[in-house]
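Lab notebook, bench 4. The sequencing result for the construct came back, and we need a structural model before the next group meeting so we can plan mutations. Quick request posted to the team channel:

Model the 3D structure of this chain.
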Amino acid sequence: MEDGDDWEPLFVGSVIGGSSPDNRASRAAVSALAREVGRLPWEFVSEETGVDVAFHIPGPLLQPDYAGIRTGSVSRKQRLIAVQIAVPADITSKSDEETLRLLAEYLVSGVEIARDAVARRKGMPPVMQAVTLARLAHEAITE
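Done. Here's the predicted structure in token form:
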């Protein structure tokens, strides 16, 4: 990332422990959330920290070694904080719609956790648009 060329307020992606029919709904939900966030308008702001959310989806090869939501690395240079969300293995018992709604809720929670973590760090610009984008994506998905 040079001079903010690739900066965005919110990135949504996944780490998949191997594709299987059991995690199809989770993979589809993350893709839907990423598309929704990608279509929302935002403005480049030089004094803002972005959030890179990675949903860790369990599969036949790999399971997340943690539960819930955690922050990862923080880069002052890139103005970015990573957030990792462990998708629970029991999500396979939920419908596609329930899975999407749950992951949309996790996205909002993860971004809010990132905002709070950045607020506690001296010298880091605040997380702003990511919170709004996550909430708008949640609203659009759950209507």
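The beta strands are 10-16, 50-57, 68-75, 80-86.
Will bring this to the meeting.
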